[in-house]
Amino acid sequence: MVALGYSLLCEQRGPRELVSDAVGAEDAGFDFAVISDHYSPWLDGQGHSPNAWPVLGAVAAATERMPLMTYVTCPTMRYHPVVVAQKAATVALLAGDGRFCLGLGSGENLNEHVVGAGWPPVNVRHEMLGEAVEIIGELFAGGYVNRRGTHYRVDSAKLWDHPEAGVPIAVAVSGAQSVRAFAPVADAMVAVEPRADLVRGFDATAGTSLPKIGQLPISWDPDRDAAIDRAHAQFRWFAGGWKVNAELPGTAAFAAATRFVTPDDVAAAFPCGPDVAAHVEAVRPFVDAGFTHVALVQVGGDTQHAYLRFAERELLPALREEYGRTEAPAIRVR
Description:
Elements: E1 3-8, H1 15-28, E2 32-35, H2 52-62, E3 68-70, H3 81-95, E4 100-104, H4 109-112, H5 122-140, E5 145-148, E6 153-157, E7 169-172, H6 176-182, E8 188-190, H7 196-206, E9 212-218, H8 224-235, H9 242-245, H10 251-257, H11 263-269, H12 276-289, E10 293-298, H13 304-323
Parallel strand pairs: 1-2, 1-10, 2-3, 3-4, 4-7, 7-8, 8-9, 9-10
Antiparallel strand pairs: 5-6
Helix pairs in contact: 1-2, 1-13, 2-3, 3-5, 6-7, 8-11, 12-13
């Protein structure tokens, strides 16, 4: 059983379009939606990057049942943790019914360097994220928070409006170090690779089975060649892997780093074209690895409406026939 999600990719859509897409995704029958939080697109060809948080507020008001999640927000440099906590609590109240989960990660140079504070090494970024998660969790619990930490100071901060039950926190992991650091404090796991070792390690370290949220890019189009060309133009940045992608500072760097990635390379990395069976099969590694949620990313901003019709009529029914209707656990504060 796996919950099937829709990805609101801010790097390829404007704010009004994202809200419209979210409504369309709910109407099409997606189980949940996630939204990226970037200051910059990965490549110039994507062409967008609105602020995710006002969009989330509008999406919360425009939708009714679909759970929402940041995938993911970095609460370390561009945003101070207390600011993230306030934004997340407000969106959670707007969404209501426990619909919002705060997804957090250690970020990318692409988005965080804009505040002029440099880009620390990965071990420092994990330390910063760990301290940020502690601060956010304390604020969600209510009361005043004061802290003089290694990376952050907090002076008499309090959330005056927040859900009584708190806001669940999902944390992105990529290896044993991040699993050890965040499984004890997270309510769910985020990962972009379908790795069973991450799932096993996360549950073992957490001491319980928690939701696992993955993400899969696809490029649907009635014309397979058009789908491949679009994926190559807009999504070849994906080929670098997260250890590389976290370090590059801008769209020019991603264009240079991927100049030798071919359309055939992209087509081999994720499904492109109209073949429903290929899209269904691409989800299998996440299911086999033990993920409870998979958010699909349709590559190409101007294809979203046609893709949502395809998803409603063909893709979602085929996925549910293959993997069953979802009984995936809700993402809640544990």
